[in-house]
Design brief:
With 243 residues, the protein is mostly helical. The chain has two domains: 158 residues, no CATH class; 59 residues, lambda repressor-like DNA-binding domains (434 Repressor (Amino-terminal Domain), Orthogonal Bundle), CATH 1.10.260.40. Helix content is 61%, strand content 0%. The chain is elongated, with a radius of gyration of 20 Å.
């Protein structure tokens, strides 16, 4: 298969699309699926897919976002970027989409019809929280950032591979999450962060989420502490019969 552009340009292309999605979500407050739709409808995705050098490497991801909005006649303000050392799930989502498009030759419309950007980013967030939960509590900021960078790059490659193979871009099948884990994930908290916010020991939270302990039999004080930290009702944390 003949690629649309040389592999030497691929890292820049992946980073550019990743930055576009990251900036759109966290600075412009445009959700990932909406930005991808504008990216496609504006004709920018077609240029990107053909390897137009000005599109894939001639500007930053922020400038690419501006270009998409200008072509779509959508007003915007130039606001500071909120990029972090660890980079966001949306960044790695864009990274994966760019790689999958380059390697498969499929259009971005075909790829995102089968694998919406929001679902890919949600999968990335879920797997990243699991990574954070597995890291030592005393890990340095620099080592945590490096672990997250390695995770993101690995996630993007794996997700791109699943997209190209025609499979789901999501994580492999697993037992249904507990209601506690769903509420924690919804709030964007790692287990360690929830432990700090609630005062409930980290090990206890892990045991409830892994069903090593029955949360339905937990002390009411523990449930109150968790529900307060998660901004939900105590009953929201109890497991339902048959689940």
């Amino acid at each position: 298969m003949i690629r649309a552009y040389d592999e030497a340009c691929l890292p820049a292309a992946c980073s550019c699309l990743g930055r576009m999605l990251d900036y759109s979500v966290y600075s412009l407050h445009i959700d990932a699926d909406s930005m991808i739709k504008l990216f496609i409808a504006s004709g920018t995705a077609a240029l990107f897919g053909r390897g137009d050098i000005r599109t894939i490497a001639g500007r930053s991801g922020i400038e690419l976002a501006y270009s998409v909005l200008e072509k779509s006649s959508i007003p915007y303000e130039r606001v500071p970027a909120r990029h972090t050392v660890s980079l966001s799930s949306e960044y790695w989502c864009g990274h994966a989409l760019a790689y999958a498009q380059w390697a498969s030759g499929l259009s971005f419309e075909e790829i995102t019809s089968a694998c919406p950007a929001s679902e890919l980013a949600a999968d990335c967030t879920k797997e990243r929280l699991a990574l954070l939960d597995s890291l030592p509590l005393d890990i340095s900021d620099a080592n945590r950032a490096e672990a997250l960078r390695r995770f993101g790059a690995g996630f993007a490659r794996a997700a791109a591979g699943r997209i190209m193979s025609g499979g789901s871009a999501g994580v492999s099948a697993a037992p249904a999450d507990t209601r506690l884990k769903k509420m924690r994930t919804k709030n964007g908290l790692s287990q360690s962060a929830l432990a700090r916010a609630s005062g409930v020991p980290l090990r206890t939270i892990q045991q409830y989420e892994q069903r090593q302990k029955d949360i339905n039999k937990a002390h009411f004080e523990c449930i109150i502490m968790l529900s307060t930290a998660l901004n939900c009702e105590p009953a929201d944390l109890f497991e339902r019969s048959g689940r």
